[in-house]
Structure formats: structure tokens, C-alpha cells
């Protein structure tokens, strides 16, 4: 009985395959070929067939020291990180293309080769200073687009690429530092100019508002001077100082006050 139990346990391990979470399995046999239907997550009965698993959830891969050359003849290396997964509908086709090798082998072999080829083509369009001083986002976008397109037919879906900073020699580093300083000085000059303009605008605004306030006050005074107010003011003056009569070149002051 013990022997039978042991055989049953061994058979269970041999005839069943556990498909990991985030993976699909491709089932194949020596005499029957590949089963087109991919095995999903869980424990599956496979008999004596073999199973190879491919990731259908995002995998983050780090490719270190990828060699490239820029348009100005600078040779450098970069670290590239990318995220990819396998289209589950193309898993069987992928096995037909690559055979009985793991996804890790594909990552370090075929995928890395494609990434390096694409990276060299893209970097060859830019100078090293362009890459380091302003066009890094363009380079990254181009590498992502080209890399994703070059591998999608095989069933790989690349969703993101992150490029590291290229290694540079001392001379190139000096040029980069000079560009950075120039940029900082330019930004400072712009800020100073904007500050001066803001201050000038503020002073002009204050003067304009003061002039408007004065004009408004004068208008209110002018509007308040009516004929009745003039006659009233004249009557008060006459009551206090008397009449002033102008007769030719002579001025006669007649006091009619009380």
C-alpha cells in the first residue's frame, strides 16, 4: 500500500503542471506537437507532455551597458530598463518561433539583441550633447516606439522604456557643464527682467490710479459747483465785505454790511 501511495504521489507530480500567477503555459509533446490552447493559471493535468511558461503580466527587465554611438562619433554605454509582457494569444506561436527555451533566455538573448539594434539606430541620429542637454525625452520615445514595433510580431508587448544617463568622457562633461551654466544664467537674466518689468508695471499702475483718483475728485468738485452754490457764496461774501463796484479805472468799495 505504501508503495502504491508513493507511486501515486510521484505520478501526480509528473502528470500535473502548476501554472504560476501571471503566466500562461504552452503544452507540447514529442509525438503530438504543440497544443494551440494556452494553459491558464492553476494546476493542470498534462500527462507526460512538457510545459513551458511565458509571462502575461508586466516584467521589468534591466539591460546594462548597452553600447551605442552618437552622430558626433562618441561611443558610450547606457543602462536601459523596459517593461514587457507576452500576448497570451500568441504564446503557442512564440514556442514555435523560439523552441524549448525559457522567457529568461529570450530576455537575455533575442530581446536584448533587438533592444541593442534599435538603440544604436536611434542614438546615431543625435549628438551626445543633444542627448544629455535637451533631447533625452525624444530619444527615449523613439527607442520605445521602435523597440515595441520590432518585437510585437513575435508576441511581445513592450509598454515602457527608461534610458539611463550615458557615460561621458571628461571633455564632454566640461561642455555639458558649460551648457548648464549658460542655461542657468539665461534663466536668471529672464527672471531679473521679469522682476524689473513687474516693478515698473506696479509703479506705473500706482501713478495711473493716483491720476484717476485726482481726476475723479476734481470732477466731483466741478459737478458740485452749481449756480445756486455760486449765488449763495456770493451773498455770503457781500454780507461780510460789502459790494465791490468797478467803474472805469476806478474801484469803489461800498460797504453795505451791517
Could you explain how this protein is built, in words?
It comes from Enterococcus devriesei. Residues 18-195 form the Band domain. With 258 residues, the chain is an alpha+beta fold. Among the domains are: 1-54, no CATH class; 55-169, Band 7 domain (Tetrahydropterin Synthase, Chain A), CATH 3.30.479. It has helices at residues 2-15, 91-98, 103-123, 128-133, 136-151, 170-224, 227-241, and strands spanning 16-19, 23-29, 33-34, 42-45, 50-55, 59-69, 75-86, 156-163, 243-247, 250-254. Helix 3 crosses helix 5 (136-151).
Give the low-confidence spans.
5-10
How many angstroms does the end-to-end distance come to? 148 Å
- Note the total helix count: 7
The number of strands is 10
What would CATH call the class of the domain at 55-169?
Answer: Alpha Beta
Q: Which fold does the CATH topology of the domain at 55-169 refer to? A: Tetrahydropterin Synthase, Chain A
Task: Specify the structural class.
Answer: alpha+beta
Mean pLDDT: 78
Strand order of the largest sheet: 3-2-5
Strand content range: 15-25%
What does the overall shape look like?
Answer: elongated
The radius of gyration computed from the alpha-carbon positions, rounded to a whole number of angstroms, is: 44 Å
The CATH superfamily of the domain at 55-169 is identified as Band 7 domain
Helix content: 40-55%
Element order: H for helix, E for strand: HEEEEEEEHHHHEHHEE
Largest sheet: 3 strands, antiparallel
SSE layout and pairings?
Elements: H1 2-15, E1 16-19, E2 23-29, E3 33-34, E4 42-45, E5 50-55, E6 59-69, E7 75-86, H2 91-98, H3 103-123, H4 128-133, H5 136-151, E8 156-163, H6 170-224, H7 227-241, E9 243-247, E10 250-254
Antiparallel strand pairs: 1-4, 2-3, 2-5, 6-7, 7-8, 9-10
Helix pairs in contact: 3-5
